[in-house]
Write a structure and sequence with these properties.
Length: about 625
């Protein structure tokens, strides 16, 4: 596969260097009256491929936009530029007493902002078509990439963490490092922006629906040998938003539906690999059903403050599909959906963001500093029906024929109506997004407990704390995962039961973690004063690093059970983008993903023991937006 990697690199370099030459020089065509100015022309690709970072109804922005931002704003900005902005030839005929149109520049790198501060502008959406009085503008992109992984024991087409679910020991790659090659198009995305009419000049109603093909594979007879290319569409976003302009400086809004979470998603990296987007490697984020309220307050000049609060669907995270746990769809729903809902409370999230214009040069996005927080709960329930002999764990049975042990009988007698066990989820995040004409710096740092649903904590959720307890037993639970332990607060003799007053539901503690990322973007074309209308205006380079690590105490406490043994995950990536035109981008990314086990434990990689597993990944492909 080394020869293939060389071939892929050569092909990538050929594409990103030959296309500008074949397409022509960097000079714009002065006779083409349909070429928009730099403000209307989308800038080099933003590799995150996230939804528009500008107003919710996708109004035009002077800063650079991502491929999806371009697709959402293309009809608005292009039609405006083509209809109002004269060509270069036309401006040459402008009378001398009129102020000439300033020479535009290549926009700076725009941060990924899936939860913008700026409110939508009323009647700001230029529709592709209308349904009654509702304006609708479709957007999306077609993305195809070829990727080579030096080690991919899970068989995924994205970089998973170092937990090898296909292995009987979860840490063994077999006789080789298990390198793999994939080509995929399921990262393609489609969506539509909406704006509803209203007679009040103060009310603006907007919405969005978005999906992709990165969900489950088909399981039907006509796809039984080709399910790998039969990707099912999945919902990403579906929300509506109402904004009330209290005055020229104050906007109050409500949003309901599925959107990006306030915690984590307020800062995202620019990388080509968007299927996992650095999950469990320092980038925390999610999309979740929610009800959100917020305020955008102008403070004078370019300064704005935006406090936001939301109640979310309580979610605990997908169960680990390891060799010794419940797996499949039942396991996902049991822990990801059932345990959160069984807590009988929503998940609470909040964010406080400040925005201002750091660099006042042309075509530079405003800067942001923010804090976001999360608080939730999960609960696992055992009913007295789970004490039935055919549902008991084997540790509760003794003798031949098997009978219920005295220990389990004493636990059932002490808790005749069943019992429940709970743990909390919480997190704090701080982040900065600092765009300048020379570079754009984005960083995020977080600390919290049970961040598995947010793609943190190395996929750990909670630990059962057996400090001072003995003879633990896990009865079956209504979610099917058995995540609730009963124990005795005194030592129990062999074959004896636990005194009723000493029966304890073992406490569950969220496994704590910390981490973050730093992402640095360079507008190469702007550095070299490229013509914003030419074919060399679309070069950008990104450097990225991220880390997610378990708190030492939680990883090494001998009384904690349920910790998977992963200590940390790290990633380093470099991504080069070349945008041929406002709709076509080519990209190549070289990255190194690594997972380290806690000291004293080892992977078996190609027959060799090592505490660190690494995947050197090369990915290349085009992205076409619409």
């Amino acid at each position: 596969m080394l020869n293939f990697k060389k071939l892929l690199s050569v092909l990538s370099l050929f594409v990103v260097t030959a296309i500008p030459v074949m397409a022509g020089t960097n000079d714009a065509n002065p006779t083409n009256a349909k070429v928009p100015n730099a403000e209307a022309t989308p800038a080099p690709a933003d590799p995150s491929l996230t939804p528009p970072a500008a107003d919710t109804n996708a109004t035009a922005s002077s800063a650079s936009a991502s491929p999806v931002e371009e697709s959402a704003t293309a009809s608005s900005s292009s039609s405006s530029a083509q209809g109002q902005q004269p060509s270069v030839a036309a401006t040459q005929q402008t009378p001398q007493h009129e102020k000439p149109i300033p020479v535009a520049v290549v926009p700076a790198v725009a941060p990924v902002r899936v939860i913008p501060v700026d409110p939508p502008v009323k009647d700001g959406l230029v529709p592709a078509f209308k349904v009654g009085g509702v304006k609708v503008t479709p957007y999306g992109f077609i993305k195809a990439t070829a990727a080579h992984d030096s080690s991919a024991p899970n068989g995924d087409d994205f970089p998973f963490i170092g937990l090898f679910t296909a292995s009987s020991t979860d840490t063994n790659t077999g006789p080789t490092a298990d390198p793999e090659f994939h080509i995929k198009a399921r990262s393609s995305r489609f969506g539509a922006n909406f704006e509803w009419p209203d007679v009040s000049p103060r009310l603006t109603f907007t919405g969005r629906v978005e999906g992709d093909f990165e969900g489950n594979f088909s399981a039907v007879d006509n796809r039984n040998v080709s399910s790998i290319r039969s990707n099912e569409p999945q919902l990403r976003l579906a929300y509506v938003r109402m904004d009330f302009a209290a005055n020229s400086a104050t906007d109050i809004f409500f949003e309901g539906g599925q959107d990006w979470t306030l915690f984590g998603s307020s800062a995202l990296p620019n990388i080509l690999e968007t299927t996992f987007l650095g999950a469990y490697y320092g980038d925390i984020y999610e999309r979740s059903p929610q009800m959100m309220v917020g305020l955008v307050q102008k403070l004078g000049g370019s300064f704005k403050i935006a406090p936001t609060f939301a109640i979310m669907m309580p979610s605990s995270g997908q169960v680990e599909k390891t060799s010794d746990t419940v797996g499949g769809l039942a396991g996902q729903l049991g822990q990801g959906e059932r345990e959160g809902a069984d807590s009988d409370r929503p998940e609470y999230e909040g964010r406080l963001a400040f925005q201002w214009q750091l660099d006042k040069a042309q075509a530079v996005a405003p800067a942001q500093v923010f804090w976001s927080g999360l608080y939730g709960k999960r609960t696992s329930i055992v009913t007295n029906g789970d004490y039935a002999a055919d549902l008991l764990p084997t540790s509760c049975l003794t003798g031949t024929p098997p009978t219920i042990s005295a220990l389990c009988s004493s636990y059932a007698a002490a808790l005749p109506n069943g019992y429940s066990a709970s743990s909390h989820m919480y997190g704090n995040q701080i982040g900065v997004q600092l765009p300048t004409r020379w570079f754009t710096f984005v960083a995020s740092a977080y600390f919290g407990g049970d961040l598995r649903f947010m793609f943190g904590s190395q996929a750990d959720s909670f630990a059962t704390d057996l400090t001072g307890l003995s003879s633990p037993i896990k009865f079956d639970t209504v979610d099917g995962l058995g995540n609730a332990t009963v124990a005795c607060s005194v030592v129990v003799a062999t074959g004896a039961g636990c005194p009723a007053g000493d029966v304890v539901i073992a406490p569950e503690r969220p496994i704590r973690a910390f981490g973050g990322f730093a992402n640095l973007g360079f507008p190469l074309s702007r550095w070299f004063n490229a013509n914003p209308r030419g074919h060399n205006a679309g070069w950008q380079l990104f450097l990225h690093m991220g880390k997610d690590q378990i708190v030492h105490h939680d990883l090494f406490d001998a009384h904690f059970t349920g910790v998977n043994g992963l200590q940390m995950g790290k990633v380093f990536a470099a991504t080069l983008y070349y945008k041929v035109n406002p709709y076509c981008t080519f990209a190549i990314e070289q990255s190194v993903y690594g997972t380290r086990l806690k000291p004293g434990e080892s992977y078996t990689i190609a027959g060799q023991l090592d505490n660190l597993w690494q995947d050197h990944r090369t990915e290349f492909g085009p992205i076409f937006t619409f």
